[in-house]
Amino acid sequence: MTDQLQVRPAQKDAKEALASVPSGFLADSWRAPAPGGVLTVEDPATGEAIATVADCTEEDALAALGAAATAGPAWALTSPRERADTLHRLVASMHAHRERLAWLLTLEVGKTLAEARGEVDYAADYVRWYAEEAVRPHGRSTVAPDGRSHILTVAEPVGPCLLITPWNVPLAMAARKVAPALAAGCSAILKPAELTPLSSLVFAELALAAGVPAGVLTVVTTSAPAGVCARLIADERLRKVSFTGSTPVGRILLQQAGQRVLRVSMELGGNAPFLVFDDADLELAVHEAMIAKMRMGGQSCVAANRFLVQDGIADRFTAALAERMTAIRVGPGWEDGVDLGPLVDARAVAKAARLVEDARERGATVVARAPVPDGPGWYFPPTVLDHVPADAAICSEEVFGPVAAISRFSTEDEALARANDTEHGLAAYVLTSDFDRARRVAGRLQSGMVGINRGLVSNVAAPFGGIKQSGLGREGGPEGLHEYQQFKYLSMPGFHAPAGGA
Predict the structure, then answer these.
(1) Are residues 433 and 441 in contact, defined by beta-carbon separation less than 8 angstroms?
(2) How many angstroms separate the CA atoms of 87 and 130, rounded?
(3) Mean pLDDT, all residues of the chain
(4) DSSP for 396-429, written as a single string
(5) Percent of the chain with pLDDT over 70
(6) pLDDT (0 to 100) of residue 18
(7) Can you tell me the distance from the alpha carbon of 254 to that of 249, in angstroms, rounded to the nearest whole number?
(8) pLDDT tens digits for 140-198?
(9) Nearest to 400 by CA among 293, 486, 298, 482
(10) Among 98, 142, 140, which Cα is nearest to 121's?
């Protein structure tokens, strides 16, 4: 289904990847909606339109929900092994189409091909994990404490789900939500970000080919997500909302879901502190800082947003980090030797520029700035700021870009007070050679996840999520399956209870 597709990149692999993207469809029939508006996808590296997909309306979304509600009960009744086998086939298909998916990610998000291939592998790992979890649906059987009854709990699918994914890791976030929903026996509507719908469309196409029945997984691409999502949430057939995105949007969705007492999972904004103590291994600290800051070019909710560095190591850490940052080669993600692609759009560039300028005006020093290509594209130079004051906007706002903002601290208590001085609590990082300090600081950090001497916390087997204004629920690990299950309690006569006993 490529009648609406506009292909412009000169790269052969890019053309082949784009030419295979469905124009947009409803999963009940896997067809394009009636001719109407289209959603244009642009390449952040050039600013050029590369594809158009269907711009679904609220009526299209309701039709998708109808398909999910109709197909869901039969999917819920399939055996755990059947659902697992279907997901395993999807894993194999994702590996077989790795290059195709990677090119789509590079073209729609801007990341390098190397990082895009890593995202495909990461997404496939989520599908594999939940293929394995599907046959472990949980529940328990036990005798009541008084011995007069038997307690049996049964895990059941919650029902049709709305899964709303962000633009920064569109394939991985689709997999992290879709895989546990399908493993639990739920039907799902996937609403990808309007900037990056292409990889989600192909992911769903591969799921259909792997054996997911029509209607069980629905993709709705739209330029009007607020109206479409509000309409779906208000419909009595929907039973759960899972959202990854900003805290302000999450609050709106929570209010809407609260009107119908829907199950919700919210992975919202972060403001991750990266604490470097004097006793940290300098080389390790810089290496992990680059991972925590520059993975996805800083466009990640768990990216290090505030570098809090103890006085005794701060000068050496700053100099070493600046050297690494200025060595980054920036350019189109498909070019050989490029380390960092563009930001996703002009708004992202403007925000990063605003936060850097605000910090500089408040006394911060720009100690490093890497060159960026001339010409079109949404590029922003990898930047290191030192002596960033606590009242700088970058200390309270996610920069979502390749900017490392360094502040100094003297004592452990000071570091913790500043690290916790935020409404968010998603991820945090601690670099120290003192094991007791690592445990102590990690315990006092107000964060859902803590990386100790490592700048990468994401793992398919671990529960990903935050506290405070960073969200509700967890994704990944066994906990991620529970988000799509409801537990029914069956009270049965006890083995030794008298007949008719209470």
Answers:
(1) no
(2) 8
(3) 93
(4) TS---SSEEEEEEESSHHHHHHHHT-SSEESEEE
(5) 93
(6) 82
(7) 9
(8) 899 999 889 999 999 999 999 999 999 999 999 999 999 999 999 999 999 999 999 99
(9) 298
(10) 98
| Alpha helices by DSSP H, 110-246 | 113-133, 170-184, 198-210, 225-234
Could you tell me where in the chain the CATH 3.40.309.10 domains are found?
272-452
Which of 115, 205, 267, 288 is the catalytic position? 267
Active site residue 267: yes
Place of tokens 């509507």: 189
pLDDT band of residue 50 (cuts 50, 70, 90) is: very high
Give the model confidence (pLDDT) of 193-218 as tens digits: 999 999 999 999 999 999 999 999 99
Q: Fill in the DSSP letter of residue 213.
A: P
The class (CATH top level) of 58-268+470-487 is: alpha beta
> Counting every residue, how long is the chain?
502
Task: Of 71, 277, 316, 327, give the one whose Cα is nearest residue 185.
Answer: 71
The CA distances from residue 480 to 139, 174, 476, in Å, are 15, 13, 5
186 tagged catalytic: no
Q: Which of 56, 301, 395, 483 is catalytic?
A: 301
Per-residue pLDDT tens digits for 384-398: 999 999 999 999 999
Domain 272-452 bears CATH identifier 3.40.309.10: yes
In the chain, list all ranges with CATH 3.40.605.10: 58-268+470-487
